[in-house]
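Budget justification, computational time. The allocation requested in the original proposal was used primarily to generate structure tokens for proteins on the priority list. As evidence of use, we reproduce two of the resulting records. The first is shown immediately below.
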Amino acid sequence: MKKYIYLAIIVVIVYCFQSFFLAAGGIGADSLSYFGIASDLPNLVTNLFPLGFPALIKFCHFIFQDYFWASKMLNISMVISMLLFSYFKQFYFRETVLLFTGKSIFFALNIVSSEGPFLFLLYFLFYFLHERFHDKIKSGTFLLGASLIMFLLFTVRYSGIYIYLAIGLFWMVMVIKRKAFAPNFDLFRFLVFSGIGIAAYLCFNFLTFGSYTGEHLRGAPTQYQTVYIYRNLLGMANVIDPFIGLKPSSNSFTSLAFQVLILIVDLVLLGYLIKLYQRRKNLFTREFHHLLWVIAGIYTVALFISGIFQQIEEMNVRMLAAANLCLFFSFLLIYFKGLKSDRLIFRLSCFFLGFLTFYSLKSPANYLENKAKIVEQMPKFKSKKYLYDNEHNQKITATYYFPVLEKSFSYQHTNSQKGFIKQSIAGTVNPQIKWLKYDTVPDKSSILYTSELVLK
């Protein structure tokens, strides 16, 4: 157990310092939207994103008076809380530590995004469901805790509704197939109470903004091409893999072929997971794992369908983090049942924690230094209302050389582009200057263009 405590300490250190070496500090366009909503509170301006995450940022901002530090402390507090909870509650501590070596939690809690608190809450939903399925907590405790968490999941990300629907589908199947399944009535009450909370939030949105989830603000997909459906299908298959989530943005033949190789790895891994389950299925309560699989499947397919009808990101690690967490947690619980030696999984997890860390820092920078330079310049732009990256066509290309193969390749990292970095930092320093995706505001004097900011 000591080695998992040491690994947990390493995880906290890595998660604490990693974003300091990212040029934009782990802050992207969505982060700026959340900062903007948080800075507007208590005034309600938009429901494009639910209020849960902005409210958390606002609370932390009262303490730190800086949006970067507010989000940073929020992320690291969630990491520490999950690890301490697991350790003191004796809720699969080894498995929980290893979750932090996987791609989903790593990327969700090292950037500023709603996926971080979403996965945090989802983990605690796992706890309440698991303990009730194993009759370790009372019905009232489960009903109160699980219903509240389900409601909060929806207030953090609207996609929480897919988790709710998946649990509802699981309940229906269990009622039909297993009438004697003890938690059935508790699940029904959970669906009723959390459903009332979700319905109340949707009504609040409609009465306040005139739409349920800001659906009129997203619009139709900008590009509906076969190659993007192909990439999305590959992304959906990759939800199986707990560690590897490489997905180049290029649509070149080499890039797409590389993703097919990842698909082959995913399918081999799926075959191994099925065989592992078959060998050990008599060692654990299967219903809990079946529920996790249903959630993962429904969540993945529902997001894919959503992407067809509205403008959301393609199926990548961040978008499918919740589904991947369900499968990874299920796999770890099964893997450790009847295990004689954990040497392989421990070493593999340590390797991928290192790999993910170095991969995310492949172009290291000093965020705090970059931030300090932008902070000095921001007072003279107080009158600006909008922020626009007008340097997105000025691409910076990184070249990587492989000595053994004697080959090199070039790649344009979105997060390393100067315009993106300036926009991310400026929007963090003053979220009241709202970022623009397109330069469509008639009054150009109200726009802060990134070219007006100096970052060397």
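The second record produced under the same allocation is shown here.
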Amino acid sequence: MNMGDLIFQFIMFVFIIFGIFFGFYLFVRLLVTKHPNKSNNIEQKLDRIIELLEKDKRE
């Protein structure tokens, strides 16, 4: 095995490890950013339901 093969294998190993960490980072970021949007959407729906119920009580 010559030096070029060792360097190539080391570079590929670094790319694979970097890819795994980058993929994990993107996955966690996706989970974290989707959470507030769902709760915000639910809050808007609940506010709309409360408005409609109050409107029905007045009539």
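A brief technical remark on that second record: The radius of gyration is 26 Å.
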